[in-house]
Amino acid sequence: AQSVTQLDSQVPVFEEAPVELRCNYSSSVSVYLFWYVQYPNQGLQLLLKYLSGSTLVKGINGFEAEFNKSQTSFHLRKPSVHISDTAEYFCAVSDDSGTYKYIFGTGTRLKVLA
Amino acid sequence: GAVVSQHPSRVICKSGTSVKIECRSLDFQATTMFWYRQFPKKSLMLMATSNEGSKATYEQGVEKDKFLINHASLTLSTLTVTSAHPEDSSFYICSARDLRETDTQYFGPGTRLTVL
What we know:
The complex is a heterodimer.
Chain A: E1 3-5, E2 10-14, E3 19-21, E4 24-26, E5 31-38, E6 44-50, E7 56-58, E8 64-68, E9 73-78, E10 87-95, E11 102-104, E12 108-113
Parallel strand pairs in A: 2-12
Antiparallel strand pairs in A: 1-4, 3-9, 5-6, 5-10, 7-8, 8-9, 10-11, 10-12
Chain B: E1 4-7, E2 10-13, E3 19-25, E4 32-38, E5 44-51, E6 57-58, E7 67-73, E8 76-81, E9 90-97, E10 105-107, E11 111-115
Parallel strand pairs in B: 2-11
Antiparallel strand pairs in B: 1-3, 3-8, 4-5, 4-9, 5-6, 7-8, 9-10, 9-11
């Protein structure tokens, strides 16, 4: 069975500082990995995804993530955050078995401080 | 980009009544849509997978008679909460899988259901 762990429930960071949101997964098969952002009372917006190929994936809003198979991680990073990045961030894994289901992590609340 | 809409965005109903929530893929076709429930400050819980033209597949513990799902076309899936009770109050989010990007789900903006 697959699972996703987001160890940090909350991450406070000052504006213009770098940030890393951690995501670890477990799976016995090849996986697709995703990061989504959720603003208050809204749905989820896709930030970036890893399907195959280059392990460094660039997404929207200046975010990037690196797939590390040996460490089963897919950490999200941004070199300089803005107040507007304050939101909930979810990591998700989808297997390639054909069900297309996602398993979500518990989310990390990023709070950017002025 | 792929856009998914939900209607209504917010609904308040009395206990015992039924509520229908629509999920539409606006600029793409989706043979598969998913319905999630999200509790306050919690992650998303997959309720069911909706396949166009066939019966939905429910996750363990989800009452199929209470949460009726219909996926009548490639752009529309509906979730009906029947005989709603206060414990059904929640944020319901749908997502749709783009046929051209089979690996990626695009999410709707969510529906806030409050049952009095």
